[in-house]
Amino acid sequence: MKTFENAKVGDKVWYVAKGWGKIKLVDGYNCQYPIIVAFNNNTESFTFEGKNWISDEYPTLFWEEQKLDHNTKRKVEIDWLKVPMNTPVIVGNDYYKRFFLCYLPNATYSFVCFSDENNQFNAKGTCSWSDCKIDPCVEIKEEWLKQ
Length: 147
Description:
Strand content: 25-35%
Largest sheet: 5 strands, antiparallel
Helix content: under 10%
Shape: elongated
Order of helices and strands: EEEEEEEEEE
Radius of gyration: 22 Å
Number of strands: 10
Strand order of the largest sheet: 4-3-2-1-5
Distance between the termini: 37 Å
């Protein structure tokens, strides 16, 4: 990924939220947001990584225009009865990594998970959750999807 350490005043950049702008200032003293970009009626500041907020997971400032295709990623709906045991999952408001044990469709806390892989043989590390999603590192298989 191209970063902005070598950015200069006057360089054209593209921001996801506002389109094309020009770098107005590169502030070597502002460690968090050293890139200041002018857009039509206002300015925005960015990190050298192109993030508008340090906490952003992905950059939003680029050297070239980004074409956003909102139709390429379809929302997948998982049939949890088809997800295999030991599948890595994220539970608890995207906070805890666990391993899927089973799905109880009529329970308040439908997702039963365990904290260590292959721990399904020891109920000590098992807990139920109301929310669950497949870990992003796992490739979702077609057979896990609702028809």
